[in-house]
Amino acid sequence: MVKARRVLVVWCPDWPAVAAAAEAGVEATRAVAVLAANRVTACTAVARAEGIRRGLRKREAQGRCPDLLVAQDDPDRDARLFEPVVAAVDATTPGVEVLRPGMLALSARGAARFFGSEEAAAERLVDAVAAVGAECQIGIADELSTAVFAARRATLVPPGRGAEFLAPMPVSELAVEPVLAAPQRVELVDLLHRLGLRRIGDFAALTPAEVASRFGGDAIIAHRCARAIPERPPAARPPAADLTVEHRCDPPIERVDMAAFVGRLLATELHTRLSAAAVACTRLVIHAETEAGEELSRIWRCAEPLTPDSTADRIRWQLDGWLTRRALDRGRARASNSEADDWDSGPNAAITLLRLEPVEVVSAGALQLGLWGGVGEDEERARRALVRVQSLLGGDAVRMGVLSGGRGPQERITMVTLGDEPVPATDPAQPWPGRLPEPAPALVLTNHPEVRLEAVDGSPIWVSDRGLFTADPAHLHWGSSSWRLTGWAGPWPVDDRWWTHRFEHGFAARAQVQLDAEDATRLRALLLLGYNQTWHVEGLYE
Question: What does the pLDDT average to over 283-296?
């Protein structure tokens, strides 16, 4: 029987707020909150005691706690200030892997052997983190995901008891930790709640076949997490040596902006090689060498395959942390040295070589095209850009669509100002008899341009008293363009909200027409809305 590989996770609670407080130089007893898109994303325990919660608007949070220190979300700051914590843990027990700023993991087996037991290792790591001015909680379990949950509860889970430890937790816990869950995990949790699966143990009781046949791919990962088994199998083979990329820095890198530029170039080169090999990286070693011959190395582990942008971010964060820490060390050495001639006698922090080495890769099929372009790009980056646009143009200038209930495509979209609660005008879960069948149009037109629908003989087509076309559609004219039709569906009478006098003659109908592929270059089909004896384009299918 193979002994389980135990994982130890170090978690610094509320790290974005702790880092913001440290950068501002305020005391730990001060209430601090970090905001993104004008909403609280993290806060200290003191702030929570004053009623501050995640998701609160800035004004409401300040109303609950007038003394609240507000800081903006800054991943660079979080990573830079987390580097001393990582270095302290790595000096105590080598082999650290950074999961995100505020959380790291390492093998519990080596630490337990060195310090005598897992409990003793946890105590030593807590002391090591406290020595650099931070607080942490330790969790140990058989699997990484279970150890993350254990760290959030400062628990050491006995071997083989992971599923039992997770079972009584609310199923919403599966979507709390960004290291383990993508943003869309919230939708899965909401669905599980509506199905009556309120605890992680209830979800784990389902068979893998039931989960795979009824839910999406993320649900399979969440189900493995709920059962305390590995979310993804180990890499079948080690990465090829030719995937490693490196850059000789001439002149040496001493500033963060120079490091960020070189890091982005290396990230692009790395992902070019990964793409050629049809693989994606999930664990990456960032290695650097200094002018004094010192070697620095750090492992970053990611729940999802790295993208070029996320790789460049981690390189920038890591080099920023290294350069900043070396600069502080040199500053303290200078301050303690009374002879000015010896100020620069210490090791130089300038980086002469930078190397990226993938240590775990998965099939490129694990990548998914992101909504905002690129492969798996983080939507939060796009949201921050939209918030900047909103600050320039006004609050109502940036709006987003929310799926609503309705029969027509335009009725099923509720436009909500960015930052407001995404509440639909009508409930999309309710039954809507007569709703337009799927798929929905790729583009919905609000101006309803007029078109002409004709039969083979060129006569116009309308809807008869029996709800049928007066003739088979054969051609469609839209301005100066004309297409032959190869198929159609409908018409479907539109008989709702008659009391609003939406249509002059009190009758409307929808129909779908398919354009001839030889005539249409991009368009494939149109959704037509007929009223006032005329057909109009309501949607485009591509």
Answer: 83
Q: How, if at all, do strands 525-531 and 508-515 pair?
A: antiparallel
**What distance in Å separates the CA atoms of residue 251 and residue 181, rounded to the nearest whole number?**
41
The full 3-state SS of 84-145, as one line of letters, equals HHHHHHHHHCCCCEEEECCEEEEEHHHHHHHHCCHHHHHHHHHHHHHHCCCCCEEEEECCHH
Residue 430 lies in a domain: no
SS3 508: strand
What is the H or E stretch that residue 223 is in?
helix 217-226
Peptide bond into 409 cis (omega under 30): no
What phi, psi does 270 have (nearest 5°)?
-60, -45
pLDDT of 170 over the 70 cut: yes
Query: Which residues are within 8 A (CB) of 345 and not within 5 positions of it... i.e. 6 or more apart?
Result: none
Cα–Cα distances (Å) from 528 to 34, 126, 312, 402, 511, in that order, read: 48, 66, 47, 23, 5
Tell me the mean pLDDT in the region 454-471.
84
Whether the Cβ atoms of residue 404 and residue 413 lie closer than 8 Å to each other: yes
Output the domain CATH number for residue 67.
Answer: 3.40.1170.60
Strand arrangement, sheet containing 97-100: 137-141, 7-11, 103-107, 97-100, 295-301, 279-290, 351-363, 245-253
The string of pLDDT tens digits covering residues 60-75 is 999 998 889 999 988 8
Report the pLDDT value the prediction gives residue 383, as an integer from 0 to 100. 66
Same structural domain, 130 and 208: no
Question: What is the DSSP annotation of 42-58?
Answer: EE-HHHHHTT--TT-BH
Residue 290 bridge partners (DSSP): 351
The torsion angles phi and psi of 82, rounded to 5 degrees, stand at -85, -15
What's 157's DSSP letter? P
Tell whether 152 and 17 lie within a shared domain.
yes
Q: How many structural domains comprise the chain?
A: 4
Average pLDDT over residues 240-255: 80
Q: What is the pTM of this model?
A: 0.59
Closest CA to 378 of 284, 311, 423, 278: 311
What three-state secondary structure class fits 403?
A: strand
| Final residue in a domain of this structure, among 108, 138, 158 | 158
Q: End-to-end CA distance of the chain: give it in Å, rounded.
A: 56
Give the percent of the chain with pLDDT over 70: 82
Alpha carbons 96 and 318: distance in angstroms, whole number:
13
* One domain, residues 222 and 325: no
Structural domain for 468, as ranges: 443-541
Confirm if 290 and 352 have CB atoms less than 8 A apart: yes
CA dihedral 29, 30, 36, 38 (to 10 degrees): 140
Sign of CA dihedral 28, 29, 34, 40: positive
Residues whose CB is less than 8 angstroms from the CB of residue 205 and which lie 6 or more positions away in sequence, other chains included:
none
Give me the sign of the Cα torsion angle 368, 199, 227, 126.
positive
Considering the domain architecture, whether residues 126 and 173 belong to the same structural domain is answered as no
Query: pLDDT band at residue 517, thresholds of 50, 70 and 90?
Result: low
